[in-house]
Amino acid sequence: MAEIEKKYLNKIEKLENKRALSFLSPAFLFLILFMAYPVFYSFYLSFFKWNGAAEKIFIGFSNYKRIFQDSIFWKSLTNNISLSLLTVIFQVFLALIIAYWLVRVIKKGRKIFLFLYLIPIVISEICIGLLWNFIYNPYFGLINGVLRGLNLDFLTRGWVGDPSTAFLAVINAMNFTYIGMYILLFVAAIQDIPESIFDASKIDGANNYKNFFSVVIPMIQDSIQSTSLLCIINSFKTFTLTFVLTNGGPNHSSEVLSTYLYKVGFNDFEMGYSATIGCMQLVITIISGLIILKLIGKSKAYS
């Protein structure tokens, strides 16, 4: 009897596995066609010289050798690394402070503030880039208008047309665009902390400052780790805002890997070299993510 029951359960389990696989197969097919295949094809294409129309010419590792001599690539990579560090510091840490303020400090209007922070997430990045172009406009832009109104005309400039400020202007626009998403993630994480822990810290005389550093940060370290990793990935694959605001200029001062990859592929019609840049971008993003995970893992071990 037990053997018959076991065979029956095994048959049910196999049937459920087949049913689950049938439901998951469209998602697997989507991932293979639109994620896995493009990655492997880009890697394959990086060994060729190809303009997108003519016959591919195999050139081996020449594209990879060319990258090490490409000053614009290294400038783009430097900008991406700077962007990653600044966005992690500004977006993640500031989002954590704002999320704590929304959950633990203010009593009224919490949903209104959260809604305002989330507005940029649901707006197209192209629209956001165009809005920031109006704000940065040297003639009728908001920033220069305020500076002129304060009699600080010497500080006015073409913010996205000046090599010394163009990249900072892009970073500023990105911070205001993406910070709402991280605020939302941290709000959810802080709300999951048991209230009894805050009650215990209140008995010990802890204020908001001590609660933030002694309770919240240790309790949501996993959320901080995943959010930091997400921020790194987003900063390395950023394209739209930079393209709309500056197109990587002036003089490549705000160039990032994605905009340079696009120009090489669709302006210069060097699809093979463009694929090589994309492969390097993927590898660098993975390495950066692993470094962040290791650093945060060490900080968790010491805490």
Blueprint (SSEs and pairs):
Layout: H1 2-45, E1 48-49, E2 57-58, H2 62-67, H3 71-105, H4 110-122, H5 125-136, H6 142-149, H7 166-191, H8 195-203, H9 208-219, H10 221-236, H11 240-245, H12 257-267, H13 271-302
Please provide a written account of the structure:
The chain is mainly α and 303 residues long. It contains 13 helices and 2 strands; from the N terminus they run αββαααααααααααα. Strands 1-2 form a two-stranded antiparallel sheet. Helix 1 crosses helix 13 and helix 3 packs parallel to helix 7. The protein is flat, with a radius of gyration of 25 Å.
Q: List the quaternary state of the chains.
A: single chain
Q: How far is the N terminus from the C terminus?
A: 55 Å
Listing every helix as H and every strand as E from the N terminus to the C terminus, the arrangement reads HEEHHHHHHHHHHHH
Strand order of the largest sheet: 1-2
Strand content: under 5%
Shape by Cα distribution: flat
Total DSSP helices: 13
**Total strands:** 2
- Biggest beta sheet attributes: 2 strands, antiparallel
How does the helix and strand content classify structurally? mainly alpha
Unreliable stretches (pLDDT < 50, length at least 5) are: none
User: Mind telling me the C-alpha Rg?
Assistant: 25 Å
Mean pLDDT: 86
How much helix is in the residues?
A: over 70%
Give descriptors for this structure.
303 residues, mainly alpha, two-stranded antiparallel sheet, 76% helix
How would you summarize this macromolecular structure in one to three sentences?
Helices cover 76% and strands 1% of the residues.
